[in-house]
């Protein structure tokens, strides 16, 4: 047992994928998004559990692709940036790469010819998002270049929704879908009628998914909803959070009244208090914004954070658990007994989203499937 570790609930992970399948049209492929170290859950731990459940995986870059290939030979979509010097390796690892501008096409063709392979490409359409991708006005030049390039295979076109999970106004999403459809129709007229299409991640699946042949399943797979409104709308799915972040008390001691706690003297004990030292900090992903703001679980009770969260440790109030002792379990995220600290709770305290809470948990922490 590691003093501090991230525990991955394999049953919850499988349950979530299967529950979300109820929203997916029959025949639609599911790709598991495991970028960002599987949203912080651990790519190496998550992929073997999910491999029987999905047709492939999506990662962001060459580093993630290298790790992915240790655990699966299934389809690997690399939809982020791959440096020119790494394109050849990415192709040799049998990945499917994003193409989003004309400058990258010659690099892909050259690397493919050198390897005697035909790179498989996903054409990214910038459908009113303003990030990576070909804007519609630039599509004719891209299509002309792709038609002349006999050394690549366009397997799909895709886009991303911009504003769909936390709004009741789906006007922009509808506009994005119209742009995407117009681009797909243009591609079909230019000889690309057989390529695949994908636009939805979890939020799209829960709102407007229609007519795509692939879904990129991300946040929901890890037991988290894209927003509170979608959590309420799809509560029947009973998605179960996969991550449990635990450590153990490194010290238990009594402090007198008037004693400072932590850097900056931001907390002074108002009375004699029993406190515990938790050996995690902002370098591990426990946000400094949780200083005198967060809570952890000890013996199933909520224990407030006292003073500032430091790089490697912070202090908690053990008044509710006076019998706590050194090396008792501390839960930073997840369940202990009947109590739970959710990623959404931590996100609200530090002004961010649940995605960021789990994605920022240090990759140096041990991960273990339970």
Shape annotation: elongated
- Which fold name fills CATH's third level, the topology of the largest domain? TIM Barrel
Please give the CATH architecture of the largest domain.
Alpha-Beta Barrel
Give me the secondary-structure category: alpha/beta
Number of domains: 2
Q: How much strand?
A: 15-25%
Overall number of strands: 20
**Residues in helix, %:** 25-40%
The CATH superfamily of the largest domain is identified as Alanine racemase
Q: What this model shows, in words?
A:
This protein has helices at residues 10-20, 35-39, 43-50, 62-68, 87-92, 104-115, 139-148, 171-189, 202-205, 228-233, 343-350, 354-359, and strands spanning 5-8, 29-33, 56-59, 75-78, 96-99, 120-124, 153-158, 196-198, 214-217, 243-248, 251-255, 260-261, 267-268, 273-278, 295-298, 301-306, 314-317, 329-336, 339-341, 366-369. It is an alpha/beta fold and 370 residues long. The chain has 2 domains: 10-225, Alanine racemase (TIM Barrel, Alpha-Beta Barrel), CATH 3.20.20.10; 243-369, Lyase, Ornithine Decarboxylase, Chain A, domain 1. Strands 1, 10, 11, 14, 15, 16, 17, 18, 19 and 20 form a 10-stranded mixed beta sheet that branches. The longest helix is centred in the middle third of the chain and has 19 residues, at 171-189. The protein is elongated. The model has no long low-confidence stretch (mean pLDDT 97).
